[in-house]
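User: My instructor asked us to take a sequence, write out its structure as tokens, and then describe one feature of it. I'm not sure where to start. Here is the sequence I was given:
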Amino acid sequence: MDISLLWIPATLAAAAAQTARNATQRRLTETLGTVGATQVRFLYGLPFAALFLLIVLAVSGEPLPGPGSGFFGFIVMGAVTQILATALMLAAMRERSFAVVTATTKTEPVHIAVFGLVVLGDPLTPLMALAIVVATAGVILASLKSGLSELTRAGARPILMGVVAGAFFGLAATGFRGAILSLDSGSFVVRASTTLVCGLALQTAILVAWLIAFNRPALVGSLREWRSSLFAGFLGALASQFWFIGFALTAAANVRTLALVEVLMAQAVSHRLLAEGTTGRELLGVALIVAGVALLLWAAA
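Assistant: Let's start with the prediction itself. The structure tokens for your sequence are:
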């Protein structure tokens, strides 16, 4: 396979790992609260990410790359906005319909396309833009159980929280891709792994300090729930490893648009994709996701 197309299997692997991690993290939210569950993916993911980096350096024989111009700024941008996005998404899910929050946060590829173009100069052709819009529209249709009327019933607050979370996720992806590109040396795997460890280290420090200052019970609870937290951390680090490999190889908008297949994976896991009660609207949404992803892959090729 052409190395430039490795972002495709990397993204699919990341989406599968994230589907499993999200299910684990949602259960932890009930016992640890929003911030407590948010920090699990970082605190327990950091050791696994560090292990991944050590393995990559040992196998490749490459030295650890040094930070280039703008690296630390991009890392801070990615780390902080991802924390805000995750916490906002989990808070919205506790407040209102999971389907509504899922639909609105999945506007992320649209945000990334704009941020990537403005901040990093990532190319955005008309065909790619069409693919992003088609796939995103499909996610919104497939995610809403009762159709677009569900958005009206949900009210403005959860919709706004979901859209803002999607924008923050877009900023995070753009920041991490910028950090990867700003490292001064290394293969795409080494640069992706190095950036992941730096990002998780900063996020862990921020959230642990916050919990010590404002919510020690949540921190103690995450330590008490170490078995579930460790598994969620591993899945989070595994997903992030593949996300970052994708970011190292292509524009973040391409990665996160292809990642919309996560919605199909989640439906398959819950047996809804092939369930007898699947509606025509949901099938149309699935068809749009597939069409948008196919159009994106064609444009990328």
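For the description part of your assignment, you could build on this observation: The radius of gyration is 19 Å. Try explaining in your own words what that tells you about the chain.
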